[in-house]
Design brief:
alpha+beta, 21 strands, about 30% strand, seven-stranded mixed sheet
């Protein structure tokens, strides 16, 4: 991947199923060439939507790949909106700066528009690449290395009512997925699972464990009902002072605060361990306010989901707004010019409309800023302070920023 300059002299077309192995090998090579385990390859091939996957070919040689998954994503207000989950994007190092990536992004966004999906989303291996195609960083996540020898967890009343039991991850997959499904409407950025995606959380190739145990699982019950689960691994370790193992958290979900607290307390207290390694958690998760010493948890903020409005009117009308908004946006969108121009957004917590207008603009911005602010995790006010949103009507920026916010931080629960 990288900047694309010069003339494209290769053929771009939809993937044929029989070509998947060659196509995917091109992607793997673009990401360093380390082969994946057979179980990963089998799953990714089964999940690939061939009719939404593109390849750039020179004869029998594949030199570029890009795909999309047909997802439904929660937006502020709780609605599930169809989105294109852009994935498997790679360009052979021999074909950089020849327009390969731009040609695939052009074709892909045209296809997304024709399918009536108002949004495209992706996770970026190199974030600088995708801004020029209109994608803005919309969700963030927390990574942490928690010193469980020194950090204590204060839990809310009722936590002791939660019962935890070990279970084989595959044996309790259905009940864990039911917990996940209950959570999807409550947090922007979460993806409703399509058939097959439930297997993604069970991937556990030995080559990827790094000395840790096979995947383990505990299920939480409260009042006889399954209310949560945690999937994790344990990496044994010893120091001169004794046991120093690491718990590697893979996934955790709870339908209520006390269930979540019980699961975190369990992970903090696993015998012979002194570190809890956490990746990709919501930025507003409660454990951060229950620990005795956040500094010894080493939290690190990382960008996660990038959002692109493919149809500005449909996308802005699909979500609700936590305070009334009535604002005219002057939108710049060079890559998808059908979005460029003025749009009047009127909405509140009950619903919204967004239509073309000739009225004077209140705010001017690019589609990239709309994507960043869309899920409520990045404020328009902050983007304005960064010089990326221009206020035309005094007061319009603060009004719109409040409306676009979300009480719950948006979060992408897993990659794709």
């Amino acid at each position: 991947m990288g900047d694309d300059k010069g003339e494209l002299k290769t053929g771009l077309r939809t993937l044929r199923k029989s070509e998947w192995g060659t196509w995917y090998a091109t992607l793997v090579r673009a990401f360093g060439g380390v082969p994946e385990a057979a179980e990963e390859l089998e799953l990714y091939e089964s999940l690939t939507e061939a009719d939404r996957s593109l390849g750039v070919w020179e004869g029998d040689e594949c030199v570029g790949t890009a795909g999309a998954f047909s997802f439904r994503m929660t937006v502020p207000g709780g609605a599930e909106v169809p989105v294109a989950g852009v994935t498997m994007v790679g360009v052979a190092a021999t074909h950089r700066r020849r327009g390969v990536l731009t040609s695939m992004m052009r074709r892909q966004l045209d296809d997304v528009r024709s399918l009536g999906e108002p949004l495209a989303v992706l996770t970026a291996s190199e974030p600088a690449i995708y801004g020029r195609f209109g994608y803005g960083a919309a969700t963030f996540q927390v990574n942490a290395e928690i010193d469980t020898d020194r950090v204590r967890l204060s839990v809310p009343d009722g936590t002791d009512d939660v019962r935890l039991r070990y279970a084989a991850p595959g044996d309790v997959l259905d009940v864990c997925e039911a917990v996940y499904a209950r959570l999807v409407p409550g947090r922007p950025g979460m993806l409703a699972r399509r058939p097959g995606w439930e297997r993604h959380g069970l991937l556990d190739p030995e080559s990827s464990r790094g000395g840790a145990s096979p995947l383990q699982c505990v299920v939480a019950r409260r009042g006889g009902e399954v209310t949560g689960y945690a999937r994790f691994q344990v990496r044994p370790g010893w120091s001169g002072e004794g046991p120093a193992g690491t718990v590697v958290l893979r996934d955790l979900a709870g339908t209520d605060p006390v269930t979540e607290a019980a699961l975190w307390r369990f992970l903090f207290g696993i015998d012979l361990t002194s570190t809890l390694s956490v990746r990709g958690r919501p930025v507003d998760e409660a454990w951060q306010y229950q620990v005795s010493d956040l500094r010894r948890c080493g939290p690190v903020l990382r960008d996660a989901l990038y959002v692109r409005l493919v149809d500005v009117g449909a996308a802005l009308a699909a979500r609700t707004y936590q305070a009334p908004v009535d604002v005219v946006f002057e939108v710049e969108d060079a890559f998808c010019p059908w979005n460029a121009g003025r749009w009047r957004l009127s909405g509140d917590a009950k619903g919204a409309s967004c239509e073309r207008t000739s009225d004077a603009a209140d705010l001017a911005l690019s589609v990239r800023e709309l994507g960043a602010a869309y899920l409520g995790g990045v404020s328009l006010t902050s983007l304005g302070a960064a010089g990326r949103v221009r206020q035309v009507r005094p007061g319009a920026l603060a009004e719109a920023s409040v409306g676009f916010g979300s009480d719950v931080a948006p979060w992408l629960p897993h990659g794709f």
